[in-house]
Fold these 4 entries.
Entry 1:
Amino acid sequence: MEETRVLATCSLGLGFSYRGFQAGLAMDPHLIAADAGSSDFGPYYLGAGAMQKGAMSLKRDLTVLIEGALKLGVPFCTGSVGGPGAKVHLDVMVDLVTEIARERGWHFKLAAIDSEVDKALIKGRIREGRVRPLGGFPDLTEEGVDELVRCVGMIGAEPYIRALDEGAQVILAGRTTDPSIFVAEALRRGAQPGAAWHAAKCIDKGYLATTTPEDGSPVLARINGDEFTLEPTKADSRCTVQSVAQITLHENSDPFQIAQPTGVIDTHQTRYEAIDERRVRVTGSRYLPAKQPTIKLEGAKLVGYRRILLAGLRDPRLIARIDEYLDAYREKIRLAARSMEISETDYTLQFRVYGRDAVMGPTEPLRDKPGHELGLVVDVVGKTKEIAAAIATRLGPTGSRMQFLEGMGGGGNFAYPFSPSNIDVGAAYEWGAWHLMEVDWDELTDLFPIAYYDL
Amino acid sequence: MKLPEITSFLKSANAGASELTFDIGFATKDTFDKVVAAAAITPETIGRLYSIAPSSVRVFAYEPALIIKVTIPRVVRSGGIAERDFDGTQQYAPLLDLEIAI
């Protein structure tokens, strides 16, 4: 079996070494790929349809990557575009790539894989008992599906394989499991799934697999039979056993098993060994095929509209009794809301007390040792913009002027860094779907339409 | 000894929307083996440190990377309206005070 070489940079838009990339091209890769998104930033970007990264940084990376692919005549793949990988993000990316091609006078076949999942389909699967929650989420109901602003399915390698079979040179895809973006070409070329999938996992964070991510060196995986090797393409960068092995753990709950739509990457028997100071060989990785393929659903629902107020607290008497003060403050806001005919169920009021437990909340072991000054973030989420604005109007005057202790609060309890003191943060979202949906084998491809553009 | 004195890195991050994961890295196999043998990082010690039930804590010793990995539930699901640290990056701080007898 022939070796398959895959060249990976890092999350699209975060930059990478140009010189390192050119050195990577000289290693004659069969595929160039980069991940473009993540759900780590919460449901906002999916709900709002907003791009996680700026167009100029995306354009720089895309231009260099596509130029490299065209030069070698090999495909370039990126997935989870825009961050959440919904249709709205895909459309922005198609426009961006079209613009680059026009400006540069490049011609190639572009594929855009849409990974949004039809709500009616999800409801049907719910009725068939083929949707189950992940990570302690409640069961998804049909009403819950209606509440979703958008819902994407995390696709696997199959739609990429189809797009490659149909001659695409540049592939932009919606939400994808990270390794799937990198594995398709190797599977097409007949690589062993264990080595191919684990290699894809090891390079899906690009230069994070090196000892010096700040150098931005792309990495090259060489997949050969049941083993693969990893090396940075920049001559002075290094991959070590530890730098490679830790990627398998990165942001996963279980280091030995990484679930994919069609199976599990299993590293129980994996061995990592240094070839030299900067290259690592990996053997023994397995891909355990699933009996039943699944697609992970990620959906965002709108919760309301948020305003926040930032205030500094410096009075030691107030800081010593901060919980009592916040309880009294909350009650005064409740009464103010009632006077405006806003019910308690129409808004959420939260306090984050920096200098005490804002970062860790109930898991903070030092909660009873606040600092000499506290930063208070007052956070109101109203069901409507008007409700949020109405309550926000009362937040400052009420909290600052409140005479919590005798002789206090005449001038004000709050030190405001900013005017205006309350800030419109916009729509607020929660994850509404974080579930696995069973699909049939042919649906791994057929559920996700591919649009082609001859640029 | 405090944990940072014997580790090469300590980090926390989200693992999906409802879990938080800590990677505790060691520079040498010798130290890694000693910490594993001493059973110094267990569901009980982590449970105490984070005020959570030991039964909700998973601990993995990942020898190839010389990393002890700890996964716990998030207090709230990531990025929602009660969020405090949506990337989970600062949640390792209590581990800095963990006493390890090796």
Entry 2:
Amino acid sequence: MAGTETSPSGVPLYDLRLEPEDVRAVMEVLESGWLTLGPRTHEFEAAFASHLGVRHAVAVSSCTAALHLAYLAAGVGPGDEVIVPSLTFAATAAAVIYCGGTPVFADILGPHDFGLDPDDVERRIGPRTKAVCAVHFAGYPAAVDRLRALCDAHGLALIEDAAHAPSADFEGRKLGAWGRAGAFSFFSNKILSCGEGGLLATDDDDVAALARSLRSHGMISGTRSGQTGETDSYDVVGLGFNYRLDEPRSALLLSRLARLGPEIERRRELTRAYRGKLAGMPHVLIPYGDAGVGRSSCYVMPILVDDDGRRDSVRRRLRDEHGIQTSVLYPAVHEFTTYRSRFGEQRLPHSERVARTEITIPLFAHLDEATQDRVVCALDEVLAG
Amino acid sequence: MSASVPATGVMITASDRRAVAECLEGGWLTMGPRTQRFEAALSEWTGTPHAVAVSSATAALHLACRALDLGPGDEVVVPALTFVATANAPRYTGARPVLCDVESPERPNLSAAGVERCLSPHTRAVIAVHFYGYPADLGPLRELCDARGIVLVEDAAQAIGAEVEPGRYAGTVGALGCLSFFSENQLCTGEGGAVLTADADHAARVRSLRSHAMTSGTWDRHTGNEASYDVVDVGYNFRLDEPRAALGLARLSRLHDDIERRRAAVGRYRGALAGTPGLALMWTDNDVARSSHFAFPVLFESGEARRRVRDALTDRGIQTIRYPALHAFTEFAPLAAPGSLPAAEAAADRHFALPLSSHEDDDSVERVVGAVRDALRQG
């Protein structure tokens, strides 16, 4: 089994399997010898934009890069504040700091829903607030309708961190298409992955133009046109970066995007099966509801144990006694050393509770029922003991 | 009309492709054994204790500036003729780049005398660029920096494998050296780069900041070494992934040969173009022996002549490369007035680089030389 070099008999947290057609797509790019900013990136961007139903998709080097460009496009600069959840990967907050801004952490709704609490967001809006970033945890929609209305009422930009949610929707509109910009991740453990990669989606022409320029050093023309004798015609405007995605990765994503629908459908089936098998198990709380599964991209399967003192020992025993790999999504960002020292101590009770009790159990498209049963039995045994 | 001659070209061999295919089939795509092996191989190939693979040379320069704790109020001397990333890297940290003139149009690298004129009490670092792969004269630069307590960083994005000092490769003399594996480069992975350093603390800092300053990585957690992590600084996602590391590793084994072939093509160009009226060769034969030859730039009598010849080549399908001086761009115009950096401006205005790759054949060199001569004669 792929990706399990150290635990051949164990159950990995996630397990990536590429199809021969995916490998072939990358090999074709390599044979062509054209490796950067070429036709595959354009093609992938067009396909992803159409998949989301947005005007623009700008492929970049990571979701972190996409968030950075999204905040810059929202006008975030020194002294500005962006309201973000703490129960997220650190990049959601770090990208605010890249802009010279300050991340202001808001709490989540609770143990049943890890989305940002719009009421708590509203309480934290101040004169320096420029934007709000909603994370669609595990692919379940944050309250984007309420957050969007709140942002509109206060003249703020809504940014969506849709790293977990490449094909999830809310009220018929894809996640990542609700705000000023949506940031996607193609990191190796994501649903649609290429290794390192990301993308910024937007309906706003100006946001797209800025992201396109700043992803490649603020240059107004790219390598390809630069090689057709037009190299004197380019200018550099703004402080740009190298946030480009290269052609082999675009080709891989383009190949895999074609199977994204069935892949997510399979994840939903597995999630429903987990929910059924875990229902009524003592000492465990399963966030979200059965009805939410059908619109989630089901990136991961989070569960909560009822006693925060036991979480780490449960994880250790799952690993040591049953060979089952788990993860924690996430340690709370506001409790990390660098955030505590920069922004001081603060309390976010729901986020902290989830950060101390959450266990992410294995979920990937080719997980089979026997393995799921093994995970559930192991969990039952460990929790009972 | 005959086929066009691209400015550069990448030949990915069957064994390169196999290395990438094996990685994809294995299903582990980030921060794994291939990246570790690529870093170890780079370290050995360049003869420097630490090599950290990153997402680009821009990222490498950024991390080098972070490793030096540069920030607001600090100044960093950079050549006025280079790719924009050299000057942007200090800006990412809040530091200010100071544009420095180059030695001469024929030798557009930093000189110690030029750098000395740019120093101030705020100068913290100098970024020497080995432009087009030709080594900057690091001995005097290092002496100057050492005497003033300033750190020397090498932007070796275009110069992997160049011999910058006897027995020392580009990127291994400064406190930190930055490499590019962009698709046009001698060693390419698509997008990619690396930081070289002999300093264990710098290496640890760069390694931490390239992956969000997390105290453990995905691979550690996958292999059961770490249960969770802390975040101890504001880091980035500047990681290189496994397929690119596999490609870089496969190609590194042929890098000496690739550079030799580039050098041989440059030798043929120089032999054929020497003494051509209206055209001057840049750098010296000795520099050619030490350069790793990112591209082959030549100098014309005037900007007008350069434009005319370049247009003529473009019409014949021959692609070229040219770098404007940084202060010619809107973004850097506030940093230096036109006319204030005459050697960099003259080099920028009067040069362009002829097609060069590791598989440039005699025919294409001959065609390009013929086209240059024709264009000069028609002037």
Entry 3:
Amino acid sequence: MMTSRHCVLLTALACACAATIETAIAHPHVWVTMKTEIVYAPDGSVKAVRHAWQFDDMFSAFATQGLDAKRKGEFTRQELAPLAQVNVDSLKEYDYFTFAKANGEKVLFIEPVDYYLDYDPKKTVLTLHFTLPFKNPVVAKQLRIDVYDQTWFVDFGFVRKTPVTLVGAPVACKLSVAGPAQMDSSLTLRLNQLPADAQLDPSQFLGDQFANKIAVKCP
Amino acid sequence: MTAFVLVAVAITCLAIMTEHALAQGSPFGGPHPGGPATLPATGIAGWILAKQSEFYRQFSGLIRAAKSDGSAAWSLMGLSFLYGIFHAAGPGHGKAVISSYLVANGETWRRGVALSFATALLQAIVAVAVVGIAAAALNLTASRMNTAVNAIESVSYALIVAIGLRLMWVKGRAFKATLRCAREPASEGGAAVTYHCHHVHHYDDHHAHSHAADRRCEHAHSHHGHECDDASAWSHAHAPEPTELAGPGGWQRGLSAIVAVGLRPCSGAILVLVFALAQGLFWVGVGSTFMMGLGTFLTVAAIATIAVGASAWAKHMATARSGFGMLAMRGVEVAAALLITAFGMLLLGGYMASERMIGF
């Protein structure tokens, strides 16, 4: 006879089973081409990350659907202001897809400032501008900023030409930028070599695969 | 009692999941929850994912080109079809739910194919209807449209849970009845076959049937128990009667599953439709959506056929062994019903990123 313990076990099993069957990820539905500035204070401390994210045309059409505009097919910054507000509000839960470490320690951001949306009527695309201030500006010998969506719903990529700029940084600081690593054989190998019972932290791998990595080294 | 416990567990599970779901919104403002992080796809899965992306990325360019060049529209149709085939292999197109449903109900592959077709068609129709009404006719904003889609989604997932629970109830009873029968050896040499436990059918709309059979068995049990037949009689009782396969009753049976799974529009289709609308080529978007549906149908039907084949094979093996075999088959049906419930709950709770629907 089935006891309640059996039932709990069965339900848990079914849930686990269902989750396993359908863990395949969907392809991205939003593409972001980004340009980033890292802003320094006069004392040489890092104080903010300034993003400009250009969305793909299909998503831009979706986002601007039904919005009032004085001139058809064009949207002013004012007309897009409510949308920009919704954008930054909802990005909060995702930590703005921006993960920073200064001298090996996690950096906290406060709520974004100076945010607005621009519309390019020629390319019919939206660009979201926002600045993420550091909670505590820090003098960093090693600064690392990763931008990615680990669920890969949003596909982030740097713009080809000067993707990252340092604003007001000490002259000796060196910037390096790298896009997401391709899913190469070395990562597959690493995954395959893990023991079967290994505690997997998916972000550890996804971070590598999807992350757009910015590194700044200052002496 | 067992059923009560199961329902209680299900509700608790659901409550926990819903709470989790409420804690997360979507990146640019849509209310839909995101799913858990998953490992990057490798091998075949990775290739399928890459193909989808590749096709999807070409849609906007082709729709633009279709404004001045008719042949671009045909390329778009072909690409949409291919996209549908690959895309249905990803999450959120009901293949798992449909497959489990077919196994739980012991359906034929023909019904599986028909069911896949109907759900894919309904999915396309819903996508066109949502964009056609909300965006084209009412000129609603994306966020309003998202709210509508999310409401539809929730209804769809709740229906899947309902179907799962209902099947669990029916199949659970059948399982119990079989269990009881299996415990009672045919003490009089199996001569008395007046009441067959095999009357406990596996068709979900034969609720009353199972009720009756169950009672009969209990009744038999209280007397001597010798009237419960062993499983050998079940094998021929299993062959579906023609009336159950055709006719209005047959369609009604699958209707709940078609609606539950087909109600949820594909977010890719919605994005394509809205983009086509913005470009003044809504009908091109509609054509693309139906071609995606056709591709989706092929993939889901193929997977459903495999599921039905595997289940039929298991049944064949099970009937070869009497007694335990029938119990095992009932067990498989209960498990499939349980799986449907689990799918529904995970989807409803946002634990399983079916396919995120997002926007502003």
Entry 4:
Amino acid sequence: MVSTEDYVARTEGTCGKEQDVIVIFKYDKKDEAIKKILAKATLKKSIARIVFELTFGKFSFRLYGSGKAIFRDLKDKEELNSLLSELLS
Amino acid sequence: MLDPYKIREDFPILKRKVNGNPLIYFDNAATSQKPKQVIDAIKEFYENHNANVHRAVHTLNQEATELYESAHEEVARFINASGMEETVFVRGTTEAINLVAYAWGLHNLKKGDEIVVSLMEHHSNIVPWEIISGITMASVKYGKVNDDGTLDYESFENLISRKTKMICLSHVSNVTGIVNDVKRIIKVAHENGALALIDGAQSVPHMPVNVKELDADFLAFSGHKMLGPTGIGVLYGKKDILESMEPFQGGGEMIREVSFSPKTKRCSISWNVLPWKFEAGTPNVCGGVGLAEAVRYLKRIGMEKVKVHEETLTKYALPRMKSCEKARIFGTQDPSVKCGIIPFGIDGLSSHDVALFLDNYGIMVRSGFHCAQPLHEIFKLSSTARVSFYIYNTREEIDRFTEVLKEIDQF
């Protein structure tokens, strides 16, 4: 099992009714993280390989070339950690 | 006319790239960038003049004290206060409002009294009053906001009565950029014997503000939104009102004398003169020095020119943003009643997606509630993205921003 801490610099709950979570990947690991996620998740749409709309199981999220991702409708932090762990393994 | 290209040369941060793109900083309502004059003033202070202020006789103390006191005077002149005794340095707008809520509210409010605020306020002009009303049993009344984000003046004025002890209103909304006619509301407050606190966080950095002309009893604003450092802000208060108030916090600097009586086994305390009575403990001396430099920088440009520049950018941006198929702009689009803040959304995307998308292109915008959840509830929006302009922003940056918005249209 991969440690998400190797890739994730910070997670932040968004301000607003949406309650989304933004994951910011470590700068020196972001390209590797993006590569791994793109290999695992299903691509729905992308713009100029800068923004990727993806699904993984029941989850949908967007991944940005800048090394950030926004996840929606997550139950809690544990669910996020388990999802990230699967995506980054 | 203000020359933003010349001004930009003073801002080192604007030379950097973000995600491989030139930085476009459109989050000025949250905080402004700092010119090298302010950065140099801070450096100069710590390299050559750093000392604690007041109550010492050595050379560095005198230099630091003179710089700190002259910073108060500079700020007082900037807003046309009578003098430095009317300008209390605090951490920022939030602390300034809390100071009034606690130091004035706790001692002047009781059951049956009312505080009138508007529903467009930043949380920092709502929460302190809710806390204080909970302690004093006074009540908070909320003035309505129209569907276009403008203040419903009739609703607000109808709430003001002889029961009203304080009205609290933002000069400029931090979400919509709408400029409120605070002078009109202050007049009604005074006719009813109430005091008026104006949140100037979004007005003082962007337009000429004259406390005497407004006749505001209190004006709160932050240094970091007007080119100054973080951690320094200002509470303006009319001298007689500040003098009549109890202190906010106790400690050094804010007292004249603390004397222990063996007879009563207690200390008798007398307060220092204004503004020090409200500046307990070692103040943010360097913050004050940086703020004064920021004020001098803005004065050299001229606040009327700052206002015109932001109006011009807003007029330029609005039709271009609207030309993006999926873009929606919230609140009034009448540039004559608003300054350089534009809240917007993109159909099918959350505000955070919009902000992350723009971030990829080096464009910094804010997303979320902007600490004004009640106003978003009125707009029936879960959150908004927001662009906000300042003296160093250009039309070319708006062109680039709208180009990127059009790319989002394809998503």
